[in-house]
Amino acid sequence: MIFALEPIYMSIVKPSIPKGTRDFSPVILSKRNYLKAKLIDAFENFGFQPIETPSFERSETLLGKYGEEGDRLIFKILNSGEKVKNADLEALKNGELVKFSDSLSQKALRYDLTVPFARYVAQNQNDIVFPFRRYQMQTVWRADRPQHARFQEFLQCDADVVGERSLWQEVEGVLLYDWVFSQLGLKGVKIHLNHRKILAGIAQFIGGESQLINFTVALDKLSKIGEKGVINELQSKGFSSDATERLRPFLSLKDDFQTQLSFVTQALHDIEIAQEGIKELKFICDQLDHHSLKTISLTFDVALARGLNYYTGLILEALPPLGVKMGSIGGGGRYDNLTDLFGLKNISGFGISFGFDRIFLILEELNLFPNTLDHKTRLLFLNFGDDSAGFCFDKLTKLRDLQFPCEFYPKPAKLKKQLNYANQRSIPYVVILGSDEMQKGNFVLKNMMTGAQVKHPIAQMIEVLQKLI
Question: Beta-carbon neighbour count of residue 445 at 10 Å?
Answer without folding.
Answer: 19
